[in-house]
Each structure stands twice: as C-alpha cells, then as structure tokens.
Design goal:
Layout: H1 3-47, H2 71-81, E1 85-89, E2 95-99, H3 102-109, H4 117-120, H5 124-127, H6 136-146, H7 152-155, H8 158-178, H9 186-202, H10 208-219, H11 271-283, E3 289-293, E4 298-299, E5 305-306, E6 311-315, H12 316-320
Parallel strand pairs: 2-6
Antiparallel strand pairs: 1-2, 3-6, 4-5
Helix pairs in contact: 8-9
Amino acid sequence: MSVSALSLTRALGGVSGLLQAVSLLSLVLLLLKAIQFYLRRQWLLKVFHQFPSPPSHWLCGHSLKFSKEKELQELLKKVEEFPCAYPRWMWGDDVHLVVYDPDYMKVVLGRSDPKTEDNYRFLVPWIGTGLLLLEGQTWFQHRRMLTPAFHYDILKPYLGLMADSVRGMLDKWEDFVSQDSCLEILGDISLMTLDTIMKCAFSHQGSTRNERCSHQGEEGLPAEGGRAGEGEEQEALGLPGHPPLCQSECGQERPEPLDGLPCRGNLDQMPYTTMCIKEALRLYPPVPIISRNLSKPITFPDGRSLPAGIKVALSFYGLHHNPKVWPNPEMFDPSRFAPGSKPHSHAFLPFSGGPR
C-alpha cells in the first residue's frame, strides 16, 4: 500500500471516529434532555393535580384543541366547566394557570410578580420598552413622571375640544334622523375618535370627519362609507337588540334624544352613557389577558396553592364572561351598573395590572 493510500485511510478513520464521538455525545445530551423534560413534566403534573383540566397530549398539550378562530369560545366553555381556574398546557412542559375568578385574581394583583417575558418580548420592536413593558423601580420612575399629565385639572381644557367633535357627529346624525333613515354608527364614532385625537394630541384644526367625507365625494364613493343596505338591519341610532341611545337608565325616552345630552359635564351627569360604557368594557375588555411569573409561592382563598416559578395568566375576558360572576354574561345589559345596583366590587377590572 502506498503512503498516500495509507494516509487517506487514516484520515477517513479519524473522521469516522470523530463522527462517532459527536453522535454519542448528541445521544447523551438528547437522553439528558428527555430525562429533564420527563422530571419537569412529572413535577408540573404534581403541582397542578389540584386544578382539574381537560385531557392533554404529552407533547402538544391543549394546542391541538384550540384554534385561533374559536379560542374565545373554547375559553368560555372552560370557564363554565372548571371553577376559578384551570391549567392550560402548551407545548412540552410549557403550562400556565388560566385564572378567571375575582377572588383568585385579587390575590395575584395584590402581589408584585414579574411579567412573563415570552408573552411580551414580541411587543418590544413594535412599541419599544415603555411603561407597558417596564418593571420595578424603572416603572415607578416613569409612572411618577406621567402622573401629572393625567391630572384632572390638566385634562379640563380638552373637554371643549372633545365636545366639539361629539357635536359635529351629533349634527350629522340629526340630518339623518330628519330624513327618517337608518344609520350605521360605527364608522362615525371611529371618525369622531380620530378627530378628537388629532385635535388634542396634534392641535389639528378642522374636522377629519368632514375632510374624509369630502374626499369620498370627490372620488365618487358613498359619503358615509357603508355598503348599500348595511344599516337596514340596525335600529336607528342604536345597536341590534339593544335599547336606543336616547333611553335613560330606567327605560324612559329622553325628551331631547341627542342635542339635550350634556356635552361639557362629566359622566356623573350621564348615568345611562356611563352604564353603557362600563357594560361595553365588560363585554370587550381592552386588556383581555395578562401573564405573571410567580416569584414566590401563592395560596388562593380556597386553600389551593402554587409554588414559585409557575406562570399565571389572568383572563379578564374569562372573568367578564363568567356566569358565576355575571348572570347571562353574553347579553348586553347596561342595567348591571345602574345606580343603586351592587356589582362585584373587584369583578370589573378593565384597566388593572398596576406596576406589574
């Protein structure tokens, strides 16, 4: 055998030995990961044994049973089936306790557990590391600087601008009411909100609503932005199945449906409007869910407990649709918040979360 052939054989033998060593090391690492995963999952199963949940796959968890299109409907089924909370398994050993009971949520919100980074990190490239994503002392410093900006005395001058935007929308509605026609209010309310933001935040002069209507008229599009016949199934100046906007909290018609509403007063002077706002926030909370990573053990009012390191997801959507808290939760009923009624003191939490 020549020297070159012998060298090639030795090189191949060295490469083969290296590949065998790498393969053996990979198998050992894989085995260690599998053991770690098994022990972690067994520990989690022991931790959550006191919280019943639907059957889950050992690897896929409940992910196969939830679809993005029907996730909220599936959540409401779990709210009715499992009292207070249930563990939702994601992939592998990723699990969090979904909480929708007011007493449970009160305990969690009274603590200072950190956010779960995996649920918030995708927001950083979009909105930056602002007040929503900050933690600890940095959060308190930023919050202290922002507090004066939301003082009532500072917001008072904006009431006139807000009222002007609302009056413009109401004037437009009166034209349609005089024509005895139906009206789809969603687009007008969205434009009124945009108009208010432009005036208050950017000192914009004029009306965004009128500018949009004029542009649509020039392009030959419908000025109202709605499809033909879209509002025929809606009640005039109201929503389908809901009372007209001109009703008071006791169901009586106001003598002045629109122009008689106080524009410069606070919500205390508009009880029915306040009730509608609260009921809308109950049905569609602006913050549907927040997640926390327990930094220390927690014990709930019924005696069940969790150790540190467990993820807890506070489902405000589940809370606001919990039939044990709100009778007939899917029905729009502003009378839940009528003066003199006593809704659950901490069952309506649309903006909670605090420094966490």
